[in-house]
Design brief:
With 406 residues, this protein is an all-alpha fold.
Length: 406
């Protein structure tokens, strides 16, 4: 649907260009050539096709979602746009064709402008594009900061406009050069004119042309006001507002959990691909396992060392990883083992890793305590059985008799 909306936008652009060419021909500023022959028919057919597509989409959605479809305000918005477009195509345009009714023509243009609003529907599909979703989220989250920013800037612009209009009032009604007074009046003669001029001064790069005549021909004292205004408003205030919006953008991106996950997955994929190249270059035997001798040869290759430097892996770290992963002591490590260990080693130590280590240590302590208790029980039982055995009692009796005889 987004693709159709974008394509229809280009068609509306071409149609608007064609209507502008027609207006130029009527004004006599362009010649009626054969460049746009049949363009009106083509645009009308395209409008019918696109509108039928939108109507079909609405019908399909209603068929599957039933009345649940109307609970979403955006779906109601889609229906209103389709109805407005259909009214324009099938009712108003046939009535306006060759009628010359000015009121009807204005109504046709009003309904025709509703087609432009369909561009808003693209924002509904922002959830499928991570970067576009972040931008939409930023726009939504910046609604309140934008309101207060506009309020602050508006107060400053209006205040400066009233100040300027009052300053030049005496000059306008004075006896200076008439052309200069007319210029000052056109730009600062009333609150509305001064406000629009201050808006241009604040947000456009043409402010020297709007301020220089006052400084050169009215009073040099205006330079103090313009320097202060440019530093305080155009430089400081606007840049602070820009920093606020940048901060909101960063917050929106960090809050987008899906984008964070995708970013981490992409980083891991890039790391795994680079590490695979290192492993492939070091695995000269081609058996998919890295031996001790191949590791030694790997560190002699400058290209491999360069890749390790790119991956932020030190030689002693790789050696330690190799020895840790070689559990069976056969002197070889597979690619999957090497990759898993390198990925965990590259990242910073996490709290969950520390918790897992402490948990394993506690398990080992409990196992050792249980083994110790069982050994103690076995030893005590053996001592008791040995004390109650008959041969031992006979030997004790003989020893006692020998002691009594002596």
């Amino acid at each position: 649907v987004s693709v159709v909306i974008l394509l229809n936008t280009f068609v509306m652009f071409a149609e608007t260009q064609w209507r502008g060419w027609q207006a130029a021909v009527q004004l006599g500023v362009a010649q009626d050539t054969d460049e746009w022959v049949g363009a009106g028919t083509v645009f009308l057919v395209i409008d019918h096709i696109v509108n039928l597509f939108y109507m079909s989409e609405i019908c399909v959605r209603v068929f599957f979602h039933k009345w649940q479809f109307l609970r979403d305000p955006m779906h109601v918005f889609d229906i209103v746009i389709v109805l407005a477009t259909s009214t324009d195509l099938y009712i108003l345009q046939p009535l306006d064709h060759g009628n010359g009714n000015l009121a009807l023509a204005r109504l046709v243009r009003l309904f025709r402008m509703a087609r432009i609003v369909r561009l808003v529907r693209i924002l509904r599909f922002a959830v499928y594009l991570s970067h576009l979703r972040v931008m939409v989220g930023v726009l939504v989250s910046c609604a309140r900061p934008l309101f207060y920013s506009m309020l602050i800037v508006g107060v400053l612009v209006l205040g400066a406009a009233i100040f300027m209009a009052q300053l030049v009032e005496t000059f306008i009604v004075g006896d200076a050069d008439l052309n200069l007074r007319l210029w000052v009046f056109d730009h600062y003669g009333s609150a509305a004119k001064a406000s629009y001029t201050m808006f241009e001064v604040t947000f456009s790069g043409s402010w020297p042309g709007l301020t220089r005549p006052l400084v050169d021909h009215v009073s040099a004292g205006f330079s103090v006001f313009w320097i202060f205004y440019q530093i305080a408003v155009s430089f400081a205030v606007l840049r602070i507002i820009g920093a606020v919006f940048l901060n909101e953008t960063i917050k929106a991106q960090e809050a987008d959990a899906e984008m964070m996950v995708l970013t981490k997955l992409k980083d891991k994929e890039k790391f795994a691909e680079k590490l695979r190249q290192v492993f492939t270059a070091a695995d000269t035997s081609g058996d998919g396992r890295l031996s001790f001798d191949e590791m030694q040869q790997m560190f002699e290759d400058p290209n491999v060392l360069m890749w390790l430097d790119v991956l932020e892996l030190e030689q002693h770290e790789v050696w330690a990883l190799f020895k840790l992963l070689d559990d069976n002591k056969d002197g070889t490590v597979s690619y999957d083992e090497f990759l898993g260990g390198a990925v965990r080693m590259k990242g910073a130590a996490r709290a969950v890793d520390s918790i897992l280590i402490m948990h394993e240590q506690n398990n080992v302590k409990r196992m050792l305590r249980t083994i110790n208790e069982k050994i103690s029980q076995v030893g005590k039982r053996g001592t008791e059985e040995l004390a109650h055995s008959q041969p031992l009692q006979d030997s004790v009796a003989l020893l006692r008799a020998a002691a009594s005889a002596s």
